[in-house]
Amino acid sequence: MADSSVKKVVLAYSGGLDTSIILKWLQTTYRCEVVTFTADLGQGEELGPARDKALLLGIKPENIFIEDLREEFVRDYVFPMFRANAAYEGVYLLGTSIARPLIAKKLIEIAEKTGADAVSHGATGKGNDQVRFELTAYALKPDVVVIAPWREWDLRSREQLIAFAEQHQIPIAKNKRGEAPFSVDANLLHASSEGRVLEDPAVEVPDYVYSRTVSPEDAPDKPTIITISFEKGDAVAIDGKKLSPATLLAKLNDLGRDNGIGRLDLVENRFVGMKSRGMYETPGGTILHAAHRAIESITLDRGAAHLKDEIMPKYAELIYNGFWFSPEREMLQALIDKSQEFVTGDVRLKLYKGGVHVIGRSSDYSLYDQDLVTFEEGAVAYDHRDAAGFIKLNALRLRTLGQRKKKLGL
Prior knowledge:
By secondary structure, the chain is α/β, with parallel strands linked by helices. It has three domains: 8-69 and 96-179, 3-Layer(aba) Sandwich (Rossmann fold), CATH 3.40.50.620; 184-300 and 342-362, Argininosuccinate synthetase, chain A, domain 2 (Alpha-Beta Complex), CATH 3.90.1260; 378-408, no CATH class. It has helices spanning 17-30, 48-56, 70-83, 100-114, 129-140, 149-152, 158-167, 245-258, 283-299, 302-321, 327-339, 370-373, 386-408; strands spanning 8-12, 33-40, 64-68, 118-120, 145-147, 183-186, 191-194, 224-231, 234-238, 241-242, 263-269, 275-281, 345-352, 355-362. The strands form three sheets. It has a five-stranded parallel beta sheet with strand order 3-2-1-4-5, sandwiched between helices.
């Protein structure tokens, strides 16, 4: 039921058919003023039409907000996440998940700026995004009203949505009249596809679903060699050329795309309780993830590295579930960022037909000591005979257990 106290609402608006229908639905159902916010996160779409569509639907020019968030997205969200080597359920690099807190944060900022008392989004009632948007909104503005049309309206089919659009003279592109074969979400980090033709996990993903990568079979027969430079855990240069965070990720995306890198066919566990099958393309992120682990391998102490690996699943789950602005995520981030103090150096990689292969790593802060590990005899601070006592001490409890079993005849 519409809250009659809502006077102004900020809508996360893409300019597409669904959010245009939501815009008009808010106007007709809540009888409120609508402010639109469109974020450029590197999704690769022209955003001018979103402004034009909003104007066409009666939104005042001063109530249309379009912001280029690419640098902020990579610098303040993607890079901190990659310092943790975060991968949900071991493989998903969280491309959609990490974008939602930034969008929701901007919704709240615009609500404060314009005096709006509500925010709205186009996430469905079955997915994770509704949780991510709303947890962020409530964390940043506890008294905000959140309007989720897909949980409120009675438009349950594509035909009903089209009929609503026609009734309210919302322009409908020819390719939007039929049921989409799959849905797509994209930003500078990744593109995700799910639904319809992808719902049967036993069926291979059709070639036409892929948009960010060439097929590994069609990638060049000659490998591409690159060097990524890191400073305190963040990538700062490719082949010696300093780049801004967003520009660097875009360059890695190009390299990954051309070499067929970053495809993932995944059945995951949604926070809301169901399993879903999706296809993710994260070309630049896949390269960055491998390179970051490689530079950590020579600059992180064993204890620090293993502790990071232990907390990573929890950290990734917090992002996936929408808890970016939670105290526990911020506490883990402080620990992770402290670990990156000496994660500085260069990683050389070979990109070849879908694979990312580390072929070299170096750092002024390297803990790798060739004199210690060499099989050649030399003046090293390691006495082979010390290993005997080390082994006996570690075996003490195992020998005690073994003696008990022998005594009991087990």
